[in-house]
Design brief:
This protein is of the alpha/beta class. The protein contains eleven helices and ten strands. The protein has two domains: 268 residues, Aminopeptidase; 106 residues, no CATH class. The two termini are 26 Å apart.
Length: 406
């Protein structure tokens, strides 16, 4: 293994310049908003300035601006069905019960970032991906795709440090209420058994729908950690690769839109390139602006909908941790919903690099108004940049990845 120390292009000072521009000069970058488009323009201009010979792709699409369009209708439909099932008419009870059971089944898809049928009618705005393909010195034998989303979210009640630990139980409760309530509705009979319990479940589901809407009505956040830090790391990697290209590995830098909404940008990216880049290593870089660093071993915000990185990707990250023990990189389960869900759903070799708080084990300042430039730890961002650079170098020199693209 050759020297893997990164050049000064990955210094904290340079990375913080990008974070400051995105989170302060541009400010909040809600999905499908002018702020997000300004971030995309900044990234595209920066890439053109670094190396005009690179292929830089602008991929436009339309997206909703929040997860409420997915979760609120799901909970509302469950609540209305449970209340409709309170009638003593058997046919109504059976239809309402079966509908609730069906909703409990598809709720797993909602918590895995898969689109729901009703989202087709949700209002959408203009969003975009910016994709840079960086060729190696020689013929490409491998490919690595680094993904970081451009947008920032809103201040959420459910991700407050005192509440976020209860999020899996809250979301899992919606699934459980729909399932149990549906079964009880089918079995209620003409006597309307368990009427009080079923009514309580129905009203609770409607309350959850209201919470899903209220949860995204908070102020927009500047998103210095989530995810200006990830974008900065990728831009730092671009600067480094311009001066020190890899030998036989193509590096793709994908800056995606609408990540905090429904990961629409990652979905569009995988739709367009997933088949052609099926044998690539995909690394999602998110929330790396503070705390310690890890690759995520188990993702999910509901106990009924967890997802995992690809074993091949994990082996690469383990090699990176061995090569650079000074980075403190380790595998860790995280409470998160991110782009890896969609990438793994397409059976791509994906893994996430994230930051976590050493005390709580949670993402620092996750979707909170406190996610500002003042919360960023420069040393964490620099270590994340070194981790990505080392990942690319390890893959370039590794015998663990026998992919040879055409």
């Amino acid at each position: 293994m050759t020297d893997l120390n990164a050049p000064e292009e990955l210094s904290a000072e340079r990375l913080l310049q990008h974070i400051r521009h995105l989170s302060v000069s541009i400010g909040p970058r809600r999905p499908a908003s002018p702020g997000e488009r300004a971030a995309a323009d900044y990234v595209q201009a920066t890439l053109r300035q670094i190396a005009r010979r690179w292929e830089v792709i602008h991929q436009p699409f339309r997206s909703v601006d929040g997860l409420r369009y997915r979760l609120a209708p799901l909970a509302a439909l469950a609540g209305v069905s449970l209340l409709a099932g309170l009638r003593r008419r058997r046919q109504t009870q059976i239809v309402a019960g079966l509908l609730c059971i069906g909703l409990s089944v598809i709720s797993r898809d909602a918590f895995l970032a898969r689109p729901m049928v009703w989202e087709t009618w949700a209002p959408r705005g203009e969003s975009q991906n910016v994709i840079a393909r960086i060729p190696p010195r020689r013929r490409a034998q491998r490919r690595v795709v680094f993904v970081a989303h451009l947008d920032s979210g809103v201040h959420r009640l459910t991700t407050h440090p005192r509440m976020v630990r209860h999020l899996p139980y809250t979301l899992g409760g919606i699934t459980l209420m729909a399932l149990v309530g549906g079964v009880l509705s089918v079995l209620a009979g003409k006597k309307g058994r368990w009427r009080g319990l079923r009514a309580l479940m129905g009203l609770s589901a409607l309350s959850a729908a209201g919470l899903a809407v209220a949860d995204e009505s908070g102020p927009e956040v500047s998103g210095a950690i989530g995810n200006a830090s990830g974008v900065a790391v990728l831009l730092g990697l671009a600067h480094t690769l311009a001066e020190h290209p890899l030998e036989s590995t193509e590096v793709v830098l994908a800056f995606t839109g609408s990540g905090t909404a429904t990961s629409t940008g990652a979905d569009m990216l995988a739709t367009a390139y997933g088949e052609a880049w099926r044998d690539a290593l995909w690394v999602v870089v998110a929330n790396v602006g503070a705390g310690e660093l890890c690759w995520v071993t188990r993702h999910g915000i509901s106990p009924y909908a967890c997802y995992y990185p690809h074993p091949d990707a994990v082996r690469i990250m383990e090699r990176v941790a061995d090569v650079r023990p000074d980075l403190g990189l380790m595998g860790k389960p995280m409470l998160t919903l991110d782009e890896v869900a969609l990438l793994r759903d397409r059976d791509l070799r994906a893994v996430a690099l994230m930051g976590y708080d050493r005390v709580t084990g949670l993402i620092p300042h996750w979707r909170q108004a406190s996610d500002t430039i003042h919360a960023v730890l420069p040393e964490t961002v620099e270590r994340a940049a070194h981790a990505c650079w080392t990942t690319a170098r390890v893959l370039d020199e590794s015998d663990l990845w026998p992919f040879a693209p055409e």
